[in-house]
């Protein structure tokens, strides 16, 4: 991954951020391990909010979508390091974990489609984790707006970085900013034809206005 300055943490009201004596990654899927070993993720694994977000992602998302979410965070972090952008690292990991959660299940999508549903799920999770209102608002906005063609002019760093990571992983847009990172992450945790299957799922959701059935078969 691209080298750069260590991003400062935003204090988490829900936990101390101390590392666990055991390896928290061992309880997570084997397919995730090559990505969890990357420094940007490995540094966060002992953080209570990060751990809770990863557990929820494992519970909610199909395997390929979960891997996409991890790659999204790593690409976003690589962009931030390249440009020296300070941002809420743990918060962005939670946003990445939930940004496609609205695509899962049979819940009617309602106004705003699956990104708004994903933002609602993230907000419910952050409330349970006792995350403050300002931080929740920032992170849920990032998820709600990640499908825009371009970030809003007043979008904060978390919204811009999530948008960058999502679009780079699925479409390759922005690759010049972090040359080679997308290819390396795809080699570490491949999801062949993900862009095609993901696009088909989006079309199905748009046509039905309700999520197609997709039970998560846990590994």
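^ Assign residues to that structure.
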């Amino acid at each position: 991954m691209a080298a750069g300055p260590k991003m400062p943490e935003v204090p988490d009201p829900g936990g101390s951020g101390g590392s666990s004596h055991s390896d928290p990654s061992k309880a997570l899927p084997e397919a995730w391990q090559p990505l969890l070993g990357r420094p940007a993720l490995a540094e966060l694994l002992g953080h209570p909010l990060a751990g809770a977000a990863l557990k929820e992602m494992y519970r909610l998302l199909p395997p390929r979508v979960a891997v996409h979410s991890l790659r999204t965070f790593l690409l976003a972090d690589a962009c931030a390091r390249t440009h020296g952008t300070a941002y809420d690292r743990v918060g962005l990991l939670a946003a990445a974990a939930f940004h496609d959660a609205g695509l899962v299940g049979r819940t009617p999508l309602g106004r705003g489609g699956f990104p708004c549903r994903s933002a609602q799920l993230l907000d419910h999770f952050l409330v349970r984790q006792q995350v403050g209102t300002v931080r929740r608002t920032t992170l849920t906005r990032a998820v709600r707006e990640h499908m825009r063609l371009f970030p809003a002019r007043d979008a904060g760093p978390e919204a811009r970085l999530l948008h960058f990571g999502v679009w780079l992983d699925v479409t390759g847009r922005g690759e010049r900013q972090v040359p080679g990172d997308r290819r390396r992450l795809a080699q570490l945790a491949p999801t062949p034809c993900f862009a095609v299957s993901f696009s088909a799922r989006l079309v199905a959701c748009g046509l039905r206005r309700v999520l197609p059935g997709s039970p998560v078969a846990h590994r």
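The CA atoms of residues 14 and 128 lie 9 Å apart.
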